[in-house]
Amino acid sequence: MNSLHRVSLVSRDLTKASKRNKSYNVRLLNVISDNCDFNIQSLIERAKAVAALGAVNWDDPTWNIDEFQRSHKQRQSNLHFTSHRHETARGRNTGCPFDNERNFSDVVKAVIRMRAEIGGQCVANQREMILAFRYLYEELKNHSFDVRLLEHRHFEMAARAVRASETEVSAYKRIQKLEEIARTLDECRLVRVKLDWVCRSNRRPTALRDLLEDQIESGKDSEVSVVSQHNKLPTEGVIEGIAHLYHVIPKDAWADRIRICFISLLLITGFRIGELLTLRASKVETEEPTGRRYIVFYPEKGAPPAKKWFMTSAGELAAKLIDEILELTEKSRSTALWLHENPGHVRIEGLDLICATTSIIELGQALNLKQVRLYLKSREIQVFGKGKKAFVQTADLVKSMRSESYSKPVNVVLHTGELLYLKDALACVPLNAFRSSHATLDYAIRPISEQQLTDFIGTRLGSGNVFERYGIKGPDGNVLAVASHAFRHWLNDLLDRGGLSDLEQATYFGRKNVGDNRAYQSMTHRERVRRVREDLLGGKMRGPVAEVLNQIPIDRKKVFLEARVQAMHLVAGGACFHEFSQTPCPNHMACTDGCGDFHWSTDDAVQKKELEFEKQVLQVAVETARLEVKEDSYGAESWLQHNLRKLQQVRFSLGETVDATGGVPI
Question: What is the mean pLDDT of residues 162-169?
Fold first, then answer.
């Protein structure tokens, strides 16, 4: 790599770092005093008053925020305001709580809560911030853990400690958090001496930098940028394996059957796994005028409830899958409804829980337990009496059993506040439903967790996945495995290769930013250009280049296309061949206003729909412009001619016969 490219690379890194720093420049205090003690107290009081992270116990060194997670994320979401755990602290999962004699703990908690209130950072991001604070905590041991006494040198020593104990990539991210802490302390004036600290030696990790250098050296046609996307796709044989399992797993293998149905639904819908596991228990619906099928789902990442539309064959299969899942979970949903309507009680077939005591023999028979005493011991339920006369207090038994059911909402729907409980959820199963070594306990109903599905098809250590258990192997003879998100990548890539526009892809997969599609598209720039050239040779595309191509001898057409078509970008209604790396758009992005780079497919239903929509808009614009011309409005004639030219181009693209002046059908 030459020196110019290296300078460009470093400059790009610094520019991105500067933009990133500005994005975190959030004001935590509205009024800032010159007195750091006053600012610290103001920040703590303000943080205690906000609602972010819920009703936590401020003085507790561990904040549990599970209630703000969707049900499928059945993992404890805790924030530990503790120091590093040292080897001497045996038996502890966390370190010692932060010292608060000089408000260190309160300041950390205040910063974390205000970040959640203002920026809405996720739990993982907040944990990264606390980890960075731990390194500063170690450097303040000789200063009574007083935040006000933090200086430039403390941050330098903390950064040095980070690099000594973390991997290259982790250290890079951790030092970024140290920089954010320094900015926050300066902006809120929480320290006596301004820090103005940035780690000058924190460079992009070698692995990431080498990848970026390879892309620059290879140029725009490099396929390096899509290597990671290819790795995220299901390996060869996985899709066929899922289809085979769907047909061979019998209904009496209930645990495997329900999971293969959910995985099959995930494959044809491209849902995020959290969207799949929070579906409402309802059938696929049909839109009356068009006959199109859809299902309502709750998107992740802050989007409101939406409809997932199905293509014809996918709609039929989705309806079949959901009907089967509804049948398989009907009993669980019925129990969930009873539990919801009878709080504090449980229902067990063949066992009367009205009496004050319950025989453990009858309990074991009702629950089909081989070791009933072990069951009671694990739940800390005291057993009275011996032998066949042993019994437990019914109140203690019911309380323990009731706590095993999931009673919180499966999902709190954004923008509406609607609460989705298990009684109305599609993904609900009895306790231990997927644990073959444990008895299934029908009295307690739980949502299906993300891990229960990922273990079913993945490679978690110590558990054989469904492919291994049913003897399905890949072409290379290895046992198959796949990540749940790989199906979303696969479906997106399939639609992208089929010609679906970026806008349609973003809409179908529920993305706010069209640019996010790039992470799911594995087609290289070279492949896109090659496909366009083939379509032009086959007469499947029309436009200025296609017209010239028709006049060129057959033996020179490929040479002409290789020289003329160097780039391809999907636009509304067609494709653009302009090479933006050489010059900006000469037509100011007005693709249908006589642009020589605008081309369209002759048999693309999506492009035709987009052109029909633009045609309707232009017809309204033409009528409006004509009214303005009649009133002699300034510039109206130019506006009219501009819209007439565009309308003529759109109608020509749609295959309509137009005249040479106004674009009006003959």
Answer: 89
93/156 same-domain check: yes
* 664's tokens: 């009006």
Using DSSP's 3-state secondary structure scheme, residue 319 falls into helix
Radius of gyration (C-alpha) of the chain in whole angstroms: 32
Both 28 and 160 in one domain: the answer is yes
- Domain total of the chain: 2
Report the DSSP beta bridge partners of residue 431: 441
The alpha carbon of residue 512 and the mean position of all alpha carbons in its chain are separated, in whole angstroms, by: 12
Give the confidence band of 74 by pLDDT, cuts at 50, 70, 90: low
DSSP string, 228-293: HHHHHSPPTTHHHHHHHHHHHS-TTSHHHHHHHHHHHHHHHH---HHHHTT-BS-PPEE-TTT--E
Contact by Cβ (8 Å): 107, 40 = yes
CA distance 427 to 75: 17
Q: What is the pLDDT of residues 225-266, one digit of tens each?
A: 444 455 788 999 999 999 999 999 999 999 999 999 999 999
Q: Which domain holds residue 120?
A: 3-207
DSSP 448: P
Q: E strands of 533-660, at which residues?
A: 541-542, 569-571, 574-576, 598-601
Q: How far is CA 159 from CA 133, 204, 324, in A?
A: 11, 15, 56
